[in-house]
Amino acid sequence: MEVTDEADSLCATNRTYSDIARKVIEEDNDIDRLDTDIEERCIKILALRQPAAIDLRFITTAIKITGHLERIGDMAVNIAEKVRQTEQVVDDLNEQIFRELLTFMMEDSASIHRALLIMQVSENMERIADHAKGIADMVAYMVTGLCVRHQTRPANE
Questions:
Q1: Long-range Cβ pairs for the range 5-8 (8 Å, 24+)
Q2: What's the mean pLDDT when you consider all of the chain?
Q3: At residue 146, does pLDDT exceed 50?
Q4: Tell me: the pLDDT tens digits for 10-54?
């Protein structure tokens, strides 16, 4: 794979993750509405039916769980926003470091060993960012129910 192919692939991947992060952010509004709707329905049941014992426990538990799920949705949005902001920056920096070190090595062959070490550090930092992106994928799955880990975008997008 040539460097330009790799760069094109990284750009397409970044667009995909930006789209996923945008979708997580948009779907947070749906989670907020569902939380409110479920809570209102539970309160209506409490007021009109006056449940007892297990029915009462079920309804109060449902209210509490929806509150937790709504907060998880908010946290998913926070993660998605951070991933959108940092993933592209890390990838851009890694690419910039690669180009600059390649030029440096061509100008001074004595620097090749040091430059390769720096490249390895840069690549590992980029991999850490990829793992963060993987965590964001799992959060996107948790919020949307869609598995986004292996999704790819058509080449023409």
A1: 7/95
A2: 77
A3: yes
A4: 455 556 666 777 777 778 888 888 889 999 999 999 999 999 988
In sign, the C-alpha dihedral spanning 86, 87, 88, 92 is positive
CA 35 to chain CA centroid, nearest Å = 22
Both tokens of 35, joined, read: 């939380």
Element (H, E) at 13: helix 3-49
The pTM score is 0.50
Residue whose tokens read 């040091």: 114
pLDDT digits (tens, 9 = 90+) for 116-144: 888 888 888 788 777 777 777 777 776 67
Whether CATH 1.20.58.220 fits 3-144:
yes
**CA distances in angstroms from 27 to 48, 61, 80, 131, listed in the order given:** 31, 24, 12, 23
Query: Cα separation of 130 and 132, whole Å?
Result: 5
Every domain of the chain and the residues it spans: 3-144
Contacts of 63 (CB under 8 A, 6+ apart): 38, 39, 42, 43
